[in-house]
Amino acid sequence: MEGINLLPLAVGHMIGLGAIGSCLGVGVMASKYLEASARQPEMMEPLQGKVFLLVGVLDGAFIIATGIGLWFATANPFK
């Protein structure tokens, strides 16, 4: 098989594995945040901003991978 024929498979892996990793990361982080908030309720406010910042970073990595994958799928820079 030529490399160009494997492009849809590579794009699918970029988007799919990025989504799985992002979802797992957000889920683990949210569960740890809730656990920490239950143990020390006074730390809920300072931790909340950090949690939202990290969720944005995790989702940003997935969005960038999706954008690059869709760019490869439509523009096909390896042709």
From TrEMBL:
UniProt keyword annotations, A-Z: ATP synthesis, CF(0), Hydrogen ion transport, Ion transport, Lipid-binding, Membrane, Transmembrane, Transmembrane helix, Transport
CDD domains referenced in this protein's UniProt entry, alphabetically: ATP-synt_Fo_c_ATPE
Segments passing through the bilayer: 6-30, 51-73
Protein family according to the UniProt entry: Belongs to the ATPase C chain family.
Subcellular location: Membrane
Gene that specifies this protein: atpE
Taxonomic classification: Bacteria, Pseudomonadati, Pseudomonadota, Betaproteobacteria, Burkholderiales
Bilayer topology annotation: Multi-pass membrane protein
Domain V-ATPase proteolipid subunit C-like stretches: 9-71
Chief place of localization: membrane
Domain of life: Bacteria
Protein name (record): Lipid-binding protein
